[in-house]
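Protein modeling request. Please complete all fields; requests missing the sequence field cannot be processed.
Requester role: graduate student
Desired output: 3D structure, token encoding
Chains: 1
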Amino acid sequence: MRYTSGAIQALIEEFAKLPGIGRKTAQRLAMHVVQETRTEVEKLATALVDVKDKVIRCSVCQNITDLGTDPCMICTASGRDRTVICVVESPTEVLALEKTGHFKGLYHVLHGVISPLDGVGPDDIKVRELIARLGPDASGMVREIVLALNPTVEGETTSLYIGKLLKPLGLSVTRIARGIPVGAELEFIDEATLSRAMDGRSAL
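Delivered output (204 residues):
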């Protein structure tokens, strides 16, 4: 269905580009915006632009943070266990694991996984930055790397690649337990399952 308003149609097209948003949901969102006050719509527009202007990647863990808060709040928190780094694919996995309240270590966000079919190699994700964190400046502080990548072919390939790189460093390299179904994404796993998976991590 096409609307008589080109502006509404354009808004629907933009909403429909968002992940997990189907055509009908995009239409509902667009009509919600139409019915909102101008003040509320301006708040939404400002929030969207602020995300592009004010959100950066943490120079340490590569997770997202606000401009002016670098390193991020997790990296600088005094109560975190600095001997353990959990490696994840994207910032959404950090949010999922933090929601469990179970993992108290630090994180490293790769921003992708190795996928030769898509032209994504090791140099296209944040592996070098992870290795740099384990160099001489770390003073032997990190003792364990937990690989918490999604259980997909690409996730497995990336885990094996990172495991090989880390082996000579003498670190304990573990992966979260297999209580998570193959093909599932961490951001959609319930908190209890994530906590058990973190508890049951095994050596790579």
